[in-house]
Amino acid sequence: MSLFTSTNAQEFEQKVKGFTKLIEEENLSIDDVIKKKQYISICSLKLDNSNQKYSDLSKMLNVT
């Protein structure tokens, strides 16, 4: 699995800090990369269980 799909947003945020040089070379910001991770997480939700609790989603996306 890739880094984008194998971690939740909080774990991803910690791991992505190791790629700051690459992020700078690509003219990205860490916030942009984290938002992409959150978008991928949302798009990867299983549709057969659409009764996601807000607390579960906020934990997965690392938002309050």
Task: Give a brief outline of the structure.
The chain is mainly alpha-helical and 64 residues long.
Roughly how much helix do the residues carry, as a percent range?
A: 55-70%
- Structural class from helices and strands? mainly alpha
Shape: elongated
Strand percentage: under 5%
Number of domains: 1
**From N to C, what is the helix and strand string?**
HHHH
Main β-sheet: number of strands, strand sense, barrel status? none
Query: What is the number of helices?
Result: 4
Return residue spans where pLDDT drops below 50 for at least 5 consecutive residues: none
| Cα radius of gyration in angstroms | 13 Å
Oligomer: single chain
The tally of beta strands, per DSSP, is 0
Q: Calculate the mean pLDDT score and round it.
A: 77
Compute the separation of the termini in Å. 27 Å
Provide a descriptive summary of the structure in words.
- It is a single chain.
- The protein has 64 residues and is an all-alpha fold.
- It has one domain.
- It is built from four helices and no strands.
- Helix 1 runs antiparallel to helix 3.
- The N and C termini lie far apart (27 Å).
- The model has no long low-confidence stretch (mean pLDDT 77).
